[in-house]
Design a protein that fits this description.
Length: 249
Amino acid sequence: MRLKDKVAIITGAASGMGASTAQLFASEGAKVVVTDLAIDQGSAVAEEITDTGGQAHFVKLDVSSEVDWRNAVSETISIYGQIDILVNSAGISGSHPDQLNTNTWDEQMNIYAKGVFLSMQAVIPIMQKAGRGSIVNISSISAFVGQAYVHMGYNAAKGAVRLATKSAAVQFAADGIRVNSVHPGIMPPMKDAMMSADPEARRIRIAAIPAQREGRVEEVAYANLFLASDEASYITGIELPVDGGYLAI
Ligand SMILES: NC(=O)c1ccc[n+]([C@@H]2O[C@H](COP(=O)([O-])OP(=O)(O)OC[C@H]3O[C@@H](n4cnc5c(N)ncnc54)[C@H](O)[C@@H]3O)[C@@H](O)[C@H]2O)c1
């Protein structure tokens, strides 16, 4: 068991890569705090884990709320007594029909840039006291390149996640805390995706990937598992693409 006795908080764990990561971490022995805005779906993920013999607990958490973060951390400590791992997977799609929409810019920065900052603000003091911790921030290939169908707020916010990760890695390495980012490529569309639903646009995007297919959520979950585990004990501040070669071209 690669995460035996570890406690992991996972955001956006009601769906997609967050849900897959929660299931995989629990199967590797972690006690998983499944968090999301979506109460029914998030509770269902936690229940599935406990029904199959794992340990999990659902907490409603809006990643852009400082108060929610404080509550989630204190609930985790009161139930499981420690926090060893944080995976930030929560998010909303970057596709928007109006590429110059201001609300979209604000939403993207709020959820990704601010949300990831608030998460680290909440858990790092606990990890510092324990002298250990691993944080995995899900960014995107969109932190490296622009894309015609993606609002620039998404690229900018994912870029902020990439650099905030490195900043935290450097600042807290001496406390035994590792912080890394994972960069998924073209994956199954996000829950709220609009434009990626266009099958022709999606076919063209997939044809441009060296691996000639979209990624699977568990392929990101396995990258998260490696970085979260002690197997990656000397790895911090890296950016790991899981993209079928998208960024290698
Ligand atoms: N799917 C893709 O194509 C793709 C590609 C690259 C990167 N990513 C990134 O991977 C991560 C996971 O994406 P996914 O495909 O699993 O998406 P998803 O839509 O399946 O899951 C995202 C989850 O985040 C939750 N969420 C949304 N806003 C929230 C908030 N304010 N607070 C808490 N939870 C919130 C949603 O309820 C949902 O359950 C995201 O950060 C996304 O930007 C996705």
